[in-house]
Amino acid sequence: MPNYLKVTPEIIAELEKAAPGRVVTGADVNPDYSKDEMPIYGVRMPDVSIDAQSTEEVSAIMKICYEHDIPVTTRGAGTGLVGGCTPICGGVVICTMRMNRILSYDLENFAVTVQPGVLLQQLAEDALKHGCMYPPDPGEKMATLGGNVATNAGGMRAVKYGCTRDYVRAMTVVLPNGEITRFGGTVSKTSSGYSLVNLMIGSEGTLGIITELTLKLIPAPQATVSLMAPFEDLAACISVVPKFFMKHYQPQALEFFEKEILVSSEQYLGKQVFPRKIEGTDIGAYLLITFDGNSMEELDPIVESASEMLLEEGALDVLVADTPPKLKDIWAARSSFLEGIEEQTKLLDECDVVVPVNKIAPYVEFVDEAKKNYDFEVKYFGHAGDGNLHIYECSTDMDREEFKKQVREFLDSIYRKTMEFGGQISGEHGIGLGKVHYLEEAAGSVNMGLMLGIKKVFDPKLILNPGKVCMKL
Amino acid sequence: MNILVCVKQVPDTNEIKIDPDTNTLIRDGVPSIVNPFDGYALEAAARIKDNAPDTKIVVLSMGPQQAETALCECLAIAADKAYLVTDRAFGGSDTLATSYILSKAIEKVEELENEKFDAVFCGKQAIDGDTAQVGPELAEHLGYPQVTCALEVKSEADGLHVYREAEDGKEVIGVKTPCLITFTKPSFDPRFPTIKRKIAARKAKIAQLTAAELTSIDPAHAGLKGSPTKVKRTYVPPRKEAGVVVKEETVEASAHKLFDLLSKAHVI
């Protein structure tokens, strides 16, 4: 571990000059800045927090911290699930939430320039007013775009439109030594040297601090239809998934979940939207599909054909949501899965594996078998179209240390299975603090060495977000 | 049992925009939906049909041609048949004229279907006009007893049992058929249409009733001319902030929380 120095009153005075009136220290620091939504990986209060307001300010702060070997952790809304913004070495936390302005639209080139603290929901709503859609759609709408880029967030529309990476054109970055640079360009293609912008995407705040983003938009689809297909059991539900691709249906979203997780989400929302039975048969699992296009006339034949296929493959029925209130209801329940789980559980851990689409069914079977050996509950749901599964380990009564021990063992076994199936240990949540040792195992020493090498080029003093991704403490 | 459900196509108020100069609704580009309260009325009828599959549900709407979309949606959800009352002569009708036209249209539908309706279900009000007058006026025109603000209805041997929202709880009112019932928001949502019903609804032909068919209507009581209501001014009511729900784990904790909130607001 590098030899970080303490934040002294002299350094605080210097920081105060860089960000007047916004340098908060000691017990006055907002306790939220000590963690993200997954405190199980560790909690630590920073010595200093600063709500930054501009690129120049971030640059001035970094120059001071670089000179004095002070660790710096950047955070947005703190909605991460891997301890990515937990300032595990203390030091300074820079929060970008106040840099929350949408700066400009270039509608002819379908681009928007934003500050990193703009919330996903804020951009989604604003872009719609301009007739555009920002396709990435992670479940957490209150996350910042800076955080989304830092983790290459995915979401429900990734199956058709791809992840955040596919929508980042350019960015302004403050390097650990305070230098300001710009990566990428607003053009739609490039073959101009190493893609530094792509190195930044998914780097989880370990290489530089993003202070401005130029993102790609698309014309907003004019028509949207969602289908809900209930199945008697999960196996039948999941086995349909590959057929959507073979038939070129191009769903915008393709999600699966079991009844239990839906029930907890609907309890959280206080409203039952999904049926539990169809003509006397108990529903075990649901598939939720969205199609988008230019008009309902364009979508009708796709919806009909896909429904026919679903019924042939064992769906108990196909229910249609094509009006604004129904679409809102059907997705509200899906979007509240995590909140539903969080409300009902005291100890929580999760993993976010991706497996090939045709391996979802055997993978889930393996998880179901593996969980029998442990005392915690396992709940999962997933982006079926991407093979991305969110598996939550939950307990309300276990001893914390025992929980951690058992979860570690469970995760070890399911991550091993992930690798065996040719999958990845994180689809969209990132590595952060919580998954470093798993990445080490999955990526191997050569690749970990390359990653650490890149880290050192950007951050020779290793002061930026220490202990995360490829840097073990 | 035969149930007629009256529905109205309204602009989706979540999307409503007001022209700041004229203070009127901008309807262009605002999606249209089935009035939500009418949706609850349809769901109530569907729930009766769930228990008594020989129940027949007919939906009736008055409005311009595009109201067909709303009727199609009702067919996809639960209705067996749909009628649209549409004629320029009916345009500009106030609630009195509308309920009068609807009462005559219902007589006509009964004639065409060769059956009487046991009950007429309406939403308690439409979310665009918010008058809550058409249902009760329609009951008067039809000479039916009426129950307003219903949450749920059960069909029993001695008539309909209506679970009604009251100031201090729920009331159960028994009513003999034929009757008219208006519905408010229950704790459940209307069901989703199934794909099979959706496809059938798309192909369904919606019967139209114009002034030519509705010969019993006295033109002096229909349309803008037949409407005693004169609109002097329309304006947007001030927006109310959402209330705060205090819901802690225990009653004591809730009381403390409420006390804190009231103290902070300097109310106590």
UniProtKB/TrEMBL annotation, chain A:
Cofactor: FAD
Keyword terms, alphabetized: FAD, Flavoprotein, Oxidoreductase
EC number: 1.-.-.-
Superkingdom per UniProt: Bacteria
Any GO molecular function: oxidoreductase activity
Residue span, FAD-binding PCMH-type domain: 41-220
Protein name: FAD-binding oxidoreductase
Automatic annotation (TrEMBL), chain B:
Oxidoreductase keyword on record: yes
Gene Ontology molecular function: electron transfer activity; oxidoreductase activity
Presence of keyword Transport: no
Keywords: Oxidoreductase
InterPro entries in the cross-refs: ET-Flavoprotein_bsu_CS, ETF_a/b_N, ETF_b, ETF_beta_N, Rossmann-like_a/b/a_fold
Listed SUPFAM superfamilies: Adenine nucleotide alpha hydrolases-like
Family the UniProt entry places it in: Belongs to the ETF beta-subunit/FixA family.
Origin superkingdom: Bacteria
Organism in which the protein naturally occurs: Caproicibacter fermentans
Listed cofactors: AMP
Gene that this sequence comes from: carD_2
Signal peptide (from-to): none
Pfam families assigned: ETF
Transmembrane intervals: none
The protein's name in its UniProt record: Electron transfer flavoprotein small subunit
Gene3D superfamilies: HUPs (3.40.50.620)
Domain Electron transfer flavoprotein alpha/beta-subunit N-terminal: 22-218
